[in-house]
Amino acid sequence: MSDTNAQTVSYVRDSMLAEQAPPITQVGAIKWVRENLFPTPLNAILTLVSLYVIYYLISHIAPWMFGGIWDANSLSECREIRDATVGSDASVACWAVLGDRWHQLLFGFYPSNLYWRPILALLLFLGGLSPILFPNISRKMLWLTAAAPFLCFWLLWGGSIWLTVSIALGFVVAYFAFVAVSRISALAGIVAALIVPVLYWILLAGPVASTMDSILPIGIEFVESRAFGGFMLSIVIGLAAIVLSLPLGILLALARQSDLFIIKTSAVVFIEVIRGVPLIVWLFTAQLLLNYFLPPGTNFDLTLRVIIMVTLFASAYIAEVVRGGLAALPSGQYEGADSLGLNYWQSMQLIVLPQALKISIPGIVNTFIGLFKDTTLVVFIGLFDPLGIASAIRASTDWNGIYWELFIFIGVMFFVFCFSMGRYSLYLEKKLQREHR
Amino acid sequence: MSTLTDAPKPKFRLSQLLYDTRYRSITIQVVALILIAAGIWWLATNTISNLTALGKDFDFGFLGTAAGYDINQTLIPYNNQMTHGRAALVGILNTLLVAFLGCVMATIIGVIVGVLRLSKNWVVSRLAAVYVEGFRNVPLLLWIFLIFAVLTESLPQPRDFRGAEPAASMILGDSVAITGRGIYIPRIGFTNSLSGNEAVVPREGYTAVASGGIDWLVVLGVFALSLIAIRYVRGRASRIQQSTGVRPVTWYLQLGLLIIPVGIVFVLLGATIVQPFLKGFNFTEGVFMRGSLIALWFALSLYTGAFIAETVRAGILSVSQGQSEAAFALGMQPNRTMSLVILPQAMRVIIPPLISQFLNLTKNSSLAIAVGYMDVRATLGGISISQTGRELEGMLLLGLFYLTLSLIISAVMNFYNNSMKLKER
């Protein structure tokens, strides 16, 4: 019996098989290619089409780009070098224009011996920004944050230091007025903090600056804003507008959320009017109409007018971003602040705004990216932003007829700025999501 | 001597305006109102005194005077003897044209790229990501300049099409000419036009055709009627499905309703295709899409398409996997799952930012100035202002136009949001 049973099983394995390598289609590169590039016929076609597109673009652009000529003084010299080396029917880039004119693309017509000033201003600004962006930096850096706007203003435009100092003194005056008067009443303190510095700026700031200047003249070379250009101009307009528009935007957002009908309505009207009209129309308004709205005889330079206009424009967008942050805050926070007996400004300052602003930072960064890209529009009212500089370079006899190299350089610069800021804002969003969970 | 007195009434004291929260809000609002009014009054008096100093007045009469300049692209009849108001209208229509074309193309590009970016295919999704990041992070103005330069620099001029051995030739069976000045495409003309007397012979050996405004209205009307009929057919199919559980097959009916009535109208009106052809140094006939329009249109759609792609991607990602799994568990087919379960939910997320992208595109169309496209900013806000010296009035009207447009679009968006809001009970 046991015999027959043994014979029904013809073969019994008595040892484990050695581990085999998986089929070649299931591992490594081949598996990846099968799964990611050719899973279905449609996908295979898509892959092949995309690969062809990539090949087509690279085969056309790469020789032109990497065969480019870096060492020449004019477009005609570039063409001579090209004829001598690769033949006249080949098409190669003439990157020499960047070597020849990089300083104009970056700094416009700023005096070349003073390039250290905008660079230092940018570094100071970034230094001032660091305690806001990175929470683990020493709080003492906040002093730099407070001083940076004034230092940057002085470094960029130059002139006597006392003008900057006397403008900055206005804020000190405001602080002391607030401290002194708020002993009597908090509301009166706020009113005093608004009125006293304005009076100071109108009546005293000029005389203070000129007396100090005659006593102790300290100053650096004055640079007109007409000399500003290139990426420096874009950065100055963009940063100034975003920094100046933040307080304005926060106030507008609070006004829009307010229960007071008149204040709410005026904020809504302001925000919608600004957002409903394209920036270019506002820029033309700044160029053509701003003089109509100011007292007869006032005339100040176009760059400043543009900064004012772009600030107003940005403040409407910032207001909407901050409003989003305020709305995203759970209503328990508002109620908690009320139940502690805090008044409106205390609750905003201590409870609501710190949280709402933190939520809105990614949105603010995105607004800044949009604004930074939009600064190119100032070319239409005669300022020399990078695109304006490009056409100025093209208008010179040396580089007449050069297109792509300048466009590509400007595009790459913008891409690097905006892409890295965009990544930063994504990183912040992710971090905030983690913290909220 | 009566000693009777009323119970002491809480007397209103002036300080309550400042310290009593019941009254303080009124105080603040009144102060704000006064400040705003003072600000407006200040601006107004400044403006008035500046205007009188310049010897100008505030008058919209210039809209009725002859414009005296030509516009190179007009959707309605216009010549330089017509008024500034008419020129502004031509500009407005041009703005709306490029905005409409841009919105349509940007949506198509955005939806395709947004879906491709979610594809599991590595090459395709990377390519889509490069497109999106490349266009989002470089100023629109640069793209407009770049595309315009590509068009004007690299495409052949009309004269290259001439001669026995032309350097360039028309494509698609001699019907489309792509030149550095713009693209010429065939147009549809009507031999039995309803408007009769405007027919012209485009080219020797052809019958006379008219472009026919009325004819197109008739075609549109018939098309609208077809759509209504299709809607009825679908409604009827749904009703039958509700009562019997079987949905009748109607696709051939729908297709027929869509094509046949319009086709009959076209045949009755004698529609023929009029191709562009070379005459002298340039092409005539057909529809001429100016290079400036094409550059602006492409740049706007590619730029906005990148933003829409992100919107679409976010919308699709926002519908959780469980939704489609549940639909499959109920036995739904994949395409009905898409149209009945996934899309309605994704749309709720996609549409509001999509509409605000349309709004952005419309506002960005004012960058037409970069390529010399004659939009409303170039006519009303450009040449009309410089010819009449009416900056204040012109800019005011221009701003009002854009403001009205964006308010209309926001109203549409609010209406949509309210109708799509989750009905919570």
In words, what does this structure look like?
The complex is a heterodimer of chains A (437) and B (425). Chain A has 18 helices and two strands. With 437 residues, chain A is mostly helical. Chain A has three domains: 46 residues, no CATH class; 66 residues, no CATH class; 211 residues, MetI-like (MetI-like fold), CATH 1.10.3720. Chain A has a two-stranded antiparallel sheet. In chain A, helix 5 packs across helix 10 and helix 10 packs antiparallel against helix 16. Chain A starts with a helix and ends with a helix. The relative contact order of chain A is 0.08. The mean pLDDT of chain A is 85. Chain B has 425 residues and is mostly helical. Chain B contains twelve helices and seven strands. In chain B, the strands form three sheets. Chain B has a three-stranded antiparallel beta sheet with strand order 1-2-7. In chain B, strands 3-4 form a two-stranded antiparallel ribbon. In chain B, strands 5-6 form a two-stranded antiparallel sheet. The longest helix of chain B has 34 residues. At the A-B interface, helix 3, helix 11, helix 12, helix 13 and helix 16 of A face helix 2, helix 4, helix 5, helix 11 and helix 12 of B.
Give a quick set of tags describing it.
heterodimer; A: 437 residues; mainly alpha; MetI-like fold; 3 domains; 18 helices; 1% strand; globular; B: 425 residues; 3-stranded antiparallel β-sheet; two-stranded antiparallel sheet; 6% strand
Task: Write a brief caption for the model.
The complex is a heterodimer of chains A (about 425) and B (about 425). With about 425 residues, chain A is an all-alpha fold.
Helix and strand pattern of chain A: HHHHHHHEHHEHHHHHHHHH
Q: Alpha-carbon distance between the termini of chain B?
A: 67 Å
- Approximate strand percentage of chain B: 5-15%
Main sheet record of chain B = 3 strands, antiparallel
**Helix/strand class of chain B:** mainly alpha
Q: CATH H level of the largest domain in chain A: which superfamily?
A: MetI-like
Number of helices of chain B: 12
**How far from one another are the termini of chain A?**
70 Å
Number of domains of chain A: 3
CATH first level of the largest domain in chain A: Mainly Alpha
| Oligomer kind | heterodimer
CATH architecture of the largest domain in chain A: Orthogonal Bundle
Approximately how much beta-strand content do the residues of chain A carry?
A: under 5%
Shape of chain A: globular
Radius of gyration of chain B over all CA atoms, rounded: 30 Å
Number of helices of chain A: 18
Principal-axis shape of chain B equals: globular
Question: How does the major sheet of chain A shape up?
Answer: 2 strands, antiparallel
Tally of DSSP β-strands of chain A: 2
The CATH topology name of the largest domain in chain A reads MetI-like fold
